[in-house]
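Q: How would the structure tokens look for this protein?
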Amino acid sequence: MKNILLVAILVCFLNGCASYQPIIDTKGKSKFETSNASEISNDKILCDKLAKNNTTFFGNINFWILSPRAETQYTDMYRKCLEGRNHNVLN
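A: Here is the predicted structure in token form.
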């Protein structure tokens, strides 16, 4: 019974990774030389697809358990992709 409850709790936590919406600062001082604010919509779509295609359910669970920030692999990959495209992600 405890195992079923634990799996149900993990599924609830991981269900939130599908709705991750990064908060991007487009106005403030950027840590990058050039602003890519005009490319946010396109970059969000591409990074979302990239993260979804390269993560699995069990990979997210494993990453979440071992992550010091308690985030899923999907969230981490999505944020790193946007930061790699010169967007200042706040969360």
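The helical segments are 2-15, 40-53, 57-66, 73-84.

The chain has four helices and two strands.

Upvote if useful.
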